[in-house]
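Researcher: Good morning. I'm working through a list of sequences from a screen, and I'd like to move beyond sequence-only analysis. For each chain I'm collecting a predicted structure so we can compare shapes side by side. This is the next one on the list. No need for commentary yet; just the structure.
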Amino acid sequence: MIDAHVHLWEKQQGTVNGLPVYDLGGGRSQFGAEVRQMLPPYMTDGVNSAERLLANMDFAQVAGAVVTQEYIDGNQDQYLQKIRMQDPLRFRVTALYEEKALPDELDGFDGVKICGGRMIDQNLTHCAGVFSRAAAEDKFIAIDMADGDTQCASLREMAQTYPELRIAIGHFGMVTRSGWQEQIRLARLPNVYIESGGITWLFNSEFYPYPSAVHAIREASDICGMKKLMWGSDYPRTMTAITYRMSWEFVERSSLLNDEEKRQFLHTNAEQFYRFHDLPEMPYVHHMAE
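Model: Good morning. Structure tokens for this chain:
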């Protein structure tokens, strides 16, 4: 498996709606005006490290992962550059776009993350510079969009302006929100793909094995084709409800998708889009409850 949507941080120091987000210990964070369980409670020091993720990946048979970013975690560029250098086969990493602010150099990054739904100016044509630069430097764009079709027209314009630029839309188009299919339709463009990071969060009220999430994957495949869809876990936040293995196993166990569709969704599409190669074989490790 290849996970197209994970988060890592050395120290969480972000913002949400103009209020701070920071670690409180025991996996909890001050999240604006409230306290949230941000990490599994055994991650007591608030450090969401690559080493811990790799241990989870090894146990869950996930060979590669794409580290995206979020304003609520704060800018993690330096940390992600370091882990990319330490493990160039298993990780792809993004630089964080912060409304007209990018690192001086994109060396050491594979892509750029745009938190589209959190931007003050949500017209993506107004940040054409980041799309242009990513295209020129052969980086991909990872973007979490505002609900529904709010940003679809402006992203379509950017995708058509830079047809060689690889674009991955996150959170499966905010699948439980009205108009989510409009984001999926963007993947009819040759350079736009969809990844499912956060889909178990969005269907959390239904919970495992998330039958409605699998139906949504089936519907999205009917819209843009299974070759445009990629699995993502949204680790570690979703790990407060389920195990890492459960974040992909609900797809593997479903009868709504055939073996080839599962292989495309869980591995092949992401391998091609993110340019993974020489990934290790991931043997199954029996656990103590078996």
